[in-house]
Amino acid sequence: METNAPAETRAAAANRRFPPFPLPPGASLPPYFGLLIIAGMILVLEVFNLTGIVPPVPAGLLLLVVAAASYLEGVRRGLIAATLVVTYEIYAFVQHGTTLLDPSWPPLRVAGLAFITYAVVGTVALFRRRLDALLRNERVLLEHADRERRRAERDRRDLAEALERVQSAQNALRMQASLLGAVGQSIIATDEAGRITWWNEPAARLFGRTWAEAATRPITELVPDPPSARESTLERIQRGASWTGEVEVGRPDGDPVTVVVSDSPIFGEAGRCAGMVRVVTDVSAQKEVERTQRLLADSGAALAASPDYESTIRTVARLCVPAFADGCAVDIVEADGMAWRLEAAHGDPGVEEKLRRSRRKHPVQLDSDDPVARVIRSGLPIVVNSVTEAQLAGFAKDGDHLETLRGMGLGSVIVVPLRATGRTLGAMAFWRGPRGRAFRGKDVALAQEIATRAGSAIQQARLFETALTASRAKSDFLAVMSHELRTPLTTIVGYTDLMLGGVPLHVPEQARTYIDRIRIAAGHLLGLIEQILVYARLETGREKTRPERVGVARILRESATLIESVADEKGVGFHVELPPAELTIETDATKFRQIVLNLLSNAVKFTDSGEVRLSAEADADAIRIAVKDTGIGIASEDLERVFEPFWQVDQSPTRRAGGAGLGLAVARRLATWLGGDVRVSSEQGRGSTFVLTLPLRWPGDIEPPGVVGEPTGIEAGTPGAAARESAIDPSAHRY
Hints:
The chain is α+β, with helices and mostly antiparallel strands. It has 4 domains: 7-151, no CATH class; 184-282, Beta-Lactamase; 303-467, Beta-Lactamase; 534-732, Heat Shock Protein 90. The protein has helices spanning 7-16, 29-48, 56-96, 106-183, 201-207, 211-214, 233-239, 284-305, 309-323, 349-361, 371-378, 389-395, 399-407, 441-500, 509-540, 552-570, 589-605, 663-673, 721-725; strands at residues 186-191, 196-199, 243-249, 257-267, 273-282, 327-333, 338-346, 364-365, 382-384, 412-420, 423-432, 548-551, 573-577, 584-587, 611-618, 622-629, 677-683, 687-695. The strands form 4 sheets. The chain has a 6-stranded antiparallel β-sheet with strand order 8-7-6-11-10-9. Strands 2-1-5-4-3 form a 5-stranded antiparallel β-sheet. Strands 13-15-16-18-17 form a 5-stranded mixed β-sheet, covered by helices on one side. Strand 6 (327-333) and strand 7 (338-346) form a beta hairpin. The longest helix has 78 residues, at 106-183. The two termini are 118 Å apart.
């Protein structure tokens, strides 16, 4: 804005200070009053005729005054001056008695000249003033235009700067939007009322809506408050509080998604909460992976928990409902060539029972068009995204079956084969209701993985059952044959003892040698049969423990007495370090003795020179009995294999050490039954050390199932003990 006021404005202000004689533009007060004073003096002099000057002289002065007043003071001031002249002329006419129409009268000529002068000069002055006014207006317009130009220039610069700032802001916003869009997380901004004011592209994809559909809508329509939240979203915004939680939200396509929500308040200049920014992270894929892994882990654990595949398959079917599907059914191909329902699981117990009864009443024929039959025949999965009424009617066997199928609530169905070792054992069916999400490719893969594991479990359970049957048959055969063989052998041993004792007749020395060889061979066979009997009873669970309080030194002494003679025959040193006599242990004495005998027999058998040492030590909880020898030793890779049944260090048919290969296997299993264990340490060529560890007190929770079997080992003081003692032969045992 210009600060200099126009000239006419200043003049008008000056005129208003001197009413009723306003000054024209550019005029000043002294000349105006000076002219009036001059004109007044001339009139006074003319009236009183004091000067004596001829009339033209005052008339000329009057003309000069009128011209000056007209030019300087404007039309109105000039008119006033002319009026004074006319007044004067009228006065002269009255005084001299002359007429105004007399052109020869000097006063009349003077008046005419005055008016002519006024008219000419006034007109010139009028045009001059108009021209000055135009010039002044032009200057004002030019000054105004210049001011407007300068103002426009400033506005243009300000606008350019503002546009540049807006452009920079827009670029920054676009960059922020690009960055927020590239984050991959959904970001939503709201106002203080919880209405959506902005979101990025990932949010539009997540919620399946356009910006026009979401703008200004309450954010709780997209992401509802979870039931566990202590306060609503709007309350948190009003309080300016942050929040993080997991919410399940729906999409327009019907698929629910699990998201993690993180809310952060936005504060205005006054420190008042003006809205919030919500970051939404879709964790549905992660949750799906976790559910899949958890389901596979649980089903795998259930399948491995028991060899009874029927119970484990039932557990797996119930794990799949509702974690994976609304219903699950398992059909197994039986020997009659039909697929029979093994298990059915459903959220409704009534429907579940109907499913079981339906398959028992209507098994699937493998040559039918039933989806289960088709899957079993082809070994390929079948997926039905939407089951129709016509399909249900085609699968139904009768009206009751159709009602059962309708009650299942079939929407989307997967049928996958139960396969193992290249064979199809049956089929598993999974289904979801019409309102649930349809199965997709990853669901089919999960169903196949579950079915594969179930098929493997079924196959392994069947193989295990077959192996158990074979093992029972083997053990029964061994037990029967051992009993059948032991009876005549016992008779042979008994009669050889009688013959050597001179009953009924004295036997010559040469014959005694032959009889003694018969007795030794029979004893060897009897020892082998005894080991086989013990092993068979352990395998079939027919062995039973009889705990009692026994002295450790007595058991070790009895065992050492039986083996010491064998060591002497081989020229092997035999040393026994007995514990104190008062040391006792609560265990099964017969099995305890059998373990020690087996360990000593093995040590003597594989020691050709050096010694075998038996020792014992105890602490507050257990006793450790060590059998150490200087024999051939055991390779490190065979330290555990020596405890396997029928395994021999020397596998050749010409091995020098005989035996069935059951001694150490029986020793470890008996030790386990007694709550202990047998361990070995060895170095090839330098000998081995076997350590038996048993608890001093009988653990009451190790009682194995089974019926009472026949006594094992040697029971001193019982009838026939002498005959059985002669049957102990180290060749019956081995590493």
